[in-house]
Input
Amino acid sequence: MGYKEPLASTTDYGVMRVGANLTVVDGIVSATSIPGDSYYGKFSSSTNQTNPVVDTANLTSFPNTELSNEITAGGTDITFNKSGVYTITYEVQAEITTGAGGDIDIWVEVDGVNLLDSNSITTIAGGGNRTIINRSFLVQLTAGQVVRVVWSSPIANMRLTAVGTQAGPTRPATNSANFLATLVKAL
Output
């Protein structure tokens, strides 16, 4: 089996056509990403988030921006500046500080409306026990839409807990909440 020569040019497909984001030099194919086509955001909270009133909706805060391109966080609101299909993932460390165990519900809102089938219910054992909870979703969003992570618990001592760096051995801090979004397909 043979290949058409030359491999490719700007005017002849050959095996593949060279274009704005694809080049061939000395038989080596190089591809570059389309500018602005990689939208992402990673946001976190390194502080405790309490449950001030039981059985009410608490908005998770993400005050720290770690990486961002066309997705921004302002406190509890994560705004998507470009339309597309995104993978969104949240992760929280929930803890009951004292007392008996109980449940925490966590779900996602888009523009103040609950995302269908996004609730998760996790039971945490009594005081001092921590659990990492995470979920991922594939969502289609239009430019300007706002996503929030919401939680509720009937347990007054439930909170999202951050833990600082630790020694013996040295370990990094654990955030109370993380949020990650990546573009799957631009629309």
Summary: The CA atoms of residues 103 and 123 lie 4 Å apart. The chain has two domains: 1-32, 40-186.
